[in-house]
Amino acid sequence: MRFRGRVWKVGDHVDTDVIIPAPYLVSTDPRELALHCLEPLRPELVRAVRPGDILVAGENFGCGSSREHAPLALKGLGLSCVVAKGFARIFFRNAINVGLPVVECPSAAQLAQEGELLEVDLEAGLVRSLERGWEHRAEPLPPFMRELLKAGGLVEYARRRLGR
């Protein structure tokens, strides 16, 4: 799986209450959640993000509560993936479970600039700038996690495996 998109940056310790504020947790519809995604931090993103864009974050992205609404909101916003210096473990797994690709690559997260065009290759574990020429290795996602992502998340994967 490869993704190409423009970078939107956020900093360290962005918690799930910032990704999707609590008043909007009355829905699990990704498109509805996206209307308020990162609203306290970057309210312009809702109108500015284009399908396929890439969120680049600092350390401990997705810390806080274990709500699945946070990766759903990011997915609903149209982001193709999230690259970060590091993820809160429960957010990382929730993202995979809802079909949102996540890549931990501290060096790429540090170097990426807002608006820059990146390519992320999940299988090879590579993040590269298509404008400035740098390339950094990330730990490739295990095959099982890539299968979950290809299926659209854990529920879709299970449906396909059960033939439903």
Distinctive features:
single chain; alpha/beta; Aconitase, domain 4; seven-stranded mixed β-sheet; globular
What does this structure look like?
- By secondary structure, the protein is of the alpha/beta class.
- It has one domain (about 1-160): Aconitase, domain 4 (Alpha-Beta Barrel), CATH 3.20.19.
- Helices cover about 35% and strands about 20% of the residues.
- Strand 5 and strand 6 (about 125-130) form a beta hairpin.
- Helix 4 packs across helix 5 (about 90-100) and helix 7 packs across helix 8.
- The radius of gyration is 15 Å and the shape is globular.
- The two termini are about 25 Å apart.
Q: Strand pairing plus helix content: what structural class? A: alpha/beta
CATH topology: Aconitase, domain 4
Instruction: Catalogue the unreliable spans.
Output: none
- Overall geometry comes to globular
- Distance from N terminus to C terminus (CA atoms, Å) equals 25 Å
CATH superfamily, please? Aconitase, domain 4
The overall number of domains is 1
CATH class membership: Alpha Beta
Please count the beta strands (DSSP E, at least 2 residues each). 7
Mean pLDDT: 95
Report the total helices. Answer: 8
Q: Would you list the SSEs in sequence order as H and E? A: EHHHEHEHEHEEEHH
How can the largest sheet be summarized?
Answer: 7 strands, mixed
Strand order of the largest sheet: 4-3-2-1-5-6-7
CATH arch. level architecture: Alpha-Beta Barrel
Question: Could you estimate the helical fraction of the residues in percent?
Answer: 25-40%
